[in-house]
Amino acid sequence: MAGNPVAERDAMARARELAHRGPRGVNPQVGAVILSPDGRVLGEGWHRGAGTPHAEVDALSRLRPEEARGATAIVTLEPCNHTGRTGPCAEALLEAGVARVVYACDDPGDASSGGAARLQAAGVAVARLDEAEGEAVIADWLFVQRTGRPRVTVKWAQSLDGRAAAADGSSQWITGPQARAHVHRERSAHDAIAVGTGTVLADDPKLTARIDGDADAPQPMPVVFGTRAIPVDAAVRRHPRGHRTAGHDLERELFGLAADGVQSLYVEGGPTLASAFLAAGLADRLTIYLAPTLLGGPRTVLDDIGVRTIDEQRRLTVTRLEQLGPDLLVEATTEEV
Ligand code: AOF
Ligand code: ZN
């Protein structure tokens, strides 16, 4: 069965919007739109998190049974082929009598993939559309599927001479308000935010995302690494998402966070924690705020990251360079290209 290209492209864009209504967690965000053979929207759906109906089943549930016969399902992810917490979507689409399925990206799961082939074998027309855009919706989830851990961004602010604080440890403020506003948007864009106990003791950060004009910005869950106790009156104890504590085995902690649905982690301080993530090869992206100031002295942004000799230097690839008021933002990945 041939599709209706214009209606299908619009429906896929709509399905991507619907996907974002779902929560980030252990399951991917998925959206679905059901079209009549002449390209009218019959129903919309999205996945509301593990244990709840998948997007295509949610969309089908909005239709009268006879409407689904001969319809086209537009889904941002390949319909699953497994019985997990819910039944296989490929079978649900077959039973409903859907004649055509258009999806954006393949399901990477060993058990859950194969829905497209299953549908095709049963005589349903299957096509793939807007793959890159579909992958972008669930980029962090796909990263977790591939690596078992959240994607990690390590952030720091520094003087031009590479210091994170003055000799006495004071560090507020090195950068200006534009850079700090940017940091709050970055906090909100991550599922969790990590600091060491040293930073909690020195700076008493709130670790909330405070964005002008957006009181409902998503808040990252604080994760405090280290062995020292968090003071009873520490600001992090009043964080709206609570907080969790973590130990020294970074990889293990990351696996645990991913198992609890954390797809991205923002490592915000300080030098000890940033260095530990870099030394362990667990930093994927760096965001470095450079302030046009000099501090000198011993408080460098990093301590030992395992580089003994110049052959071991950690080459980065700069992915973005931006001026934020008086400061510069350098974004880099640890992947060499
Ligand atoms: C779909 N449509 O809306 C979603 C899919 O065990 P479950 O039921 O929670 O299934 C989770 C897996 O199903 C998940 O890892 C991914 O492979 C797929 N997600 N598939 O057909 C959806 N959310
Ligand atoms: Zn499914």
UniProtKB/TrEMBL annotation:
Work out whether the entry's keyword set contains Repeat. Answer: no
Catalytic activity entry: 2,5-diamino-6-hydroxy-4-(5-phosphoribosylamino)-pyrimidine + H2O + H(+) = 5-amino-6-(5-phospho-D-ribosylamino)uracil + NH4(+); 5-amino-6-(5-phospho-D-ribitylamino)uracil + NADP(+) = 5-amino-6-(5-phospho-D-ribosylamino)uracil + NADPH + H(+)
Short name of any one Pfam family annotated for the protein: dCMP_cyt_deam_1
Query: What is its cofactor?
Result: Zn(2+)
Which domain of life does the protein's organism represent?
A: Bacteria
What InterPro entries does this protein's entry cite? Answer: APOBEC/CMP_deaminase_Zn-bd (IPR016192), CMP_dCMP_dom (IPR002125), Cytidine_deaminase-like (IPR016193), DHFR-like_dom_sf (IPR024072), Eubact_RibD (IPR004794), RibDG_C (IPR002734), Riboflavin_Biosynth_HTPR (IPR050765)
Which SUPFAM superfamilies does the annotation name?
Answer: Cytidine deaminase-like (SSF53927), Dihydrofolate reductase-like (SSF53597)
Q: In which pathway does it act?
A: Cofactor biosynthesis; riboflavin biosynthesis; 5-amino-6-(D-ribitylamino)uracil from GTP: step 2/4; Cofactor biosynthesis; riboflavin biosynthesis; 5-amino-6-(D-ribitylamino)uracil from GTP: step 3/4
Q: Which UniProt keywords apply?
A: Hydrolase, Metal-binding, Multifunctional enzyme, NADP, Oxidoreductase, Riboflavin biosynthesis, Zinc
Q: What is its EC number?
A: 3.5.4.26, 1.1.1.193
Q: Where is the CMP/dCMP-type deaminase domain?
A: 6-126
User: Coiled coil where?
Assistant: none
UniProt remark on cofactor binding: Binds 1 zinc ion.
The entry assigns this protein to a family as follows: In the C-terminal section; belongs to the HTP reductase family.
Functionally, this protein is described as follows: Converts 2,5-diamino-6-(ribosylamino)-4(3h)-pyrimidinone 5'-phosphate into 5-amino-6-(ribosylamino)-2,4(1h,3h)-pyrimidinedione 5'-phosphate.
- Protein name in the entry: Riboflavin biosynthesis protein RibD
